Input
Amino acid sequence: MTVDYLIEWFSGLINIPVITFLLAVTIAGIPLFVLMALNATIAVYVERKVSAFMMDRIGPMGQGPGLHAGKWGILQTIADAVKLLIKEDTIPASADKLLFKMAPFIIFIGAFLGIAALPFSSVIQVVDFNVGVFYIIAVGSVGVIGIVMAGWASNNKWSLYGAMRSAAQIISYEIPAGLSIIIPIMMSGTMNLQSLIEFQSGTVWGILPNWIIFNNPFSFLAFFIFFISAVAETNRTPFDIPEAESELVAGWMTEYSGFRWAVFFLSEYANMFVVSGLAAAGFLGGWQSPIPGLFNSPIWGLFWFTGKIIFLIFVMMWFRWTFPRLRVDQLMHVCWKVFIPIAMLNIFGVGIWKLIIG
Amino acid sequence: MGVVQGDQMVLNIGPQHPSTHGVLRLEVTTDGEIVSKITPHLGYLHRCFEKHAENVTYEQVIPFTDRCDYLASMNSNFGYVVAMEELMGIESCERVQYIRVIMAELNRIASHLLALGVYGLDIGAFTPFLYMLRDRERILDMFEYTCGARLLYNYMWIGGVSHDLPKDFEKICIEFLDYFEPQIDEYNNLLTYNKIFIERTADVGVIPADVAISYGVSGPNLRGSGVKWDVRKDEPYSIYDRFEFDVPTGTGEFGTLGDCFDRYWVRMLEVTESVKIIRQALKDIPQGDVFETMPKKIRPPVGSIYRRTESPRGDLGYYIVSDGKPSPTRVKMRSPAFTALSCLDEVSSGWMISDVLAILGSLDIVLGEIDR
Amino acid sequence: MTSIEIKEALKNQFGKSVMENDELPENQVEVKGEEWLDIATFMKNDPKLSFDQLECITGIDTGEEGPLQSHYNLHSMEHRHKIEIVINHDKNEPKVPSIEKLWRIGDWFERETYDMFGIEYIGHRDLRRILCPDDWEGWPLRKDYEPQESFHGIVVPKIKEEEGWE
Amino acid sequence: MGVLENKFQDNVVVASLDKILGWARSTSPWYFQFGLACCAIEMMASAASRHDLERIGMMPRSSPRQADVMIVAGTVTMKMALRVKKLYEQMADPKYVISMGSCATSGGPYWQHGYHVLKGVDLVVPVDVYVPGCPPRPEALIEGLLKLQEKIQTERPLTRKLA
Output
């Protein structure tokens, strides 16, 4: 979409395909990067405030001597980011230096590429793949390579434990997530995110919007399996065993400091954004308005889509500050013995449903 | 770090680690996630309590007992003064006895709240911890109102207490208890009956009763294994024989008898029992002068005594030897957390790393008391 | 059973190893160090005594002339009776059989007493210092203990009486 | 940091950059969860609902690499002293140390007969702020942290130091 427009526009100026392509990609990438940074900054602030309110605290208030972090501490995360940027970048003497330096960027790339395919509105989308769903799932799993690299390169036992747990967890939970996201694809018959969302227009039973989650009981269940697996894929409580603070200190991030660690943080929140975006597009009607027929312009679409993402991210935060943590074997148990069989049955069920009813 | 031998790996947990409850080092031999052996290394907080006690006078020992078990200073004081009064053959007046019981039970609630909250934190639930700490603050406020200190009180003196209760203490205390009792349900809803919490604690780290006794495990940990043993009931000291309260024991509600959940649950039930005791004590407390029975000169006769009392962590014993001089010859503290920690290796080998920390948390250790 | 009955029971079984010492209070029994393991085994396993809980081991340095003492506080969960065993040690070579196999907590209590007083427990599986670092010098709770002047390069500032810090 | 530190002549741009950096550092001093003894309980109480250290931008980190402030909360013993030093060395620059309570400051009640107690954590690591008390109340700790923030704000990280 956006990239296509840009390429068309640039090729009117310069007729060398490589250069136009590079220019277009760079220009399209900058807003993505800004979005990622903005997302992390706001999400960290919101997370700190949300957690504080859940715990009977007030969270960052920007208090301090002299200059302070604004009313309600809204500049808090900016201060954090600047501080992390100028902090010393420690690399342990016994670390594998190349891998240690590369790992944050691989994790970052995984998250960054995912955002590129998110349909923010019927017209705002950086790249409109015809296999968008498949693409997001695929690039989402690049991150785990970075995590294993980080854990191995740190040459620290906590990091290694964190990385191993993380690898097992993310790879396992990709299966129920993938099996569940097949259901929207089965129902709409397309992997293209825009057509998938367009499929979800109109109403079901006259009142509810025709989102896939409301379409039939199997898809309703599939949404929850997908969302829970998505939470697990982003390593958040109750599935935060790779960085479990009370067990593994900081898991695979133990040895990272300063900027590199900030990149991990950025990617974590970007990952949350991507999986929430995929859940919103696949099950919750993407940029479709919750009131069918009203507020359906592309600008409203942007509002609805980000609104749904923010809601899902809020739910993830809610999980994090409410639940205890699972143990690694229980985590695997839930995945392999509960979610995967149900997800399989779901596919079967939707097939039958489509045959008989829809 | 450690030495790698074949397929086993040595992992050092601590001395600085978020869930070792202080500065404890566990040398854990693991095979992947499974733990095969644990060697605890203590002494990172060895502050020479016993050496100090030999060099100061009898009254001056009390502040040091505060700092041993810093989560339940009142109970540490209580044990020492009970032992000292028995050694000297004196008895403090009625009002003092009641005040001591009220303070000790309030501190037991505070200590249990922290233990339960930190246990939630070990399992990964952050919010209950802060809720419990919030209510603990209100207890500390009452202590502060009475004796001016928040954490280390030096409140119970030999033959008396340092300050009488403030005039409206009774009202404040009842108000707190009325507020606090419904809160217990909130904790239960938030943490105790959470499915994940039960999965993580039930059947984990079972201590059978005979093993517990052999290791000298005491207090809620022993009661969690189903042994009905409470020094307050079985060897009553002070005026504990006047109050009606139950001794809750583990029942293996969700798993095996003596698992982590039982130990957690016994603590939760004990909080309710303490509330009962405080209510009774507040009802019966007589008027009087708290300095009346305080001896002018503390010079116990030659002899020795071993006395144990029920601290929130279990049997807290003091062995005091006097040779007639103003300072003791020997003061030994038999710390309940020390004995509880000693069974960690036997209980937790074969479990996973996450479980080891869950078991350690369920034992509710205080390093100040282990290392002294 | 009362302390006197327990004392009688021990005397009947072990004769001279249980010593007569009138200075001791009623609840204490002095025994010979060398026989301690046998006595302890009997005390734990005899159904009438059945001391299943070792409450505390206290080491005492009684001063320059006096001996080193070990006090064992035993308690029976079954019969709810208790007794205190006293063992006197030779100050130059304090040795006593270990009872850590009978009561598992004895393991750590003995290590602690070893750490503080240097009493050696024969047959203990892992007799190391428990509280002080492994390379610590001296037995801290003995009356003649002098603190170390430095530890791994950390100099301990000396305190002079009245003058304060040096 | 490293590369840029103390490399620039003093001028208007550098001075205002310095001010921004100082602001950022002082506004988000993440502390290292390093509880040693009794004071750690008061440190927990300061972080909990009533006092809430997060108001002044403090966030707990359990890995030394990511923390800025080490709050030495409690008695440092000889056995622990070497570890304290190591943990301090593991922290990334810029790093600050708060000595909380009299035990960490001077040995506190244990200074006379405490054969195994380090008489002040400043014997092994440099200390920025001393907070007195046994244990200091949460208010006292917060006051100490505000003092530390003031100190950080006066730093000029980029400006070349005069020899």
